[in-house]
Amino acid sequence: MSKVLAIDDDLGFLRSLESLLKYKKIEVDTIQNPLDAEELSKRNCYDCILLDVEMPEMNGFDLLRKFNEVCPSTPLIMISGKSGIPDAVQAIKCGAYDFIEKPLEAERLLIAIQNATNKKILLEDKQNLINDLSPFYHMTGESVAHRSLLQIIQKYAPTDIKTLILGETGVGKELVAGAIHYNSKRAGKPFIKINCAAIPGELLESELFGHSKGSYTNAISDYEGKFLRANGGTLFLDEIGDMELLLQAKLLRVLESGEVEPVGSATPKKVDVRVVTASNKNLNTMIETGKFRKDLFHRINALTITVPPLRERKEDIPLLSRFFLHEFAKIYNKRLVDITPDAMDMLIAYDYPGNIRELKNMIENVAILTNNVIIDHDDLLQAFPILRSFSLLPMQNSLLESATDHFERDYIIQKLTENNWKIVRTASELGIDRTSLFKKMKKFGITKPKGH
Question: The whole model's pTM is what?
Answer without folding.
Answer: 0.58
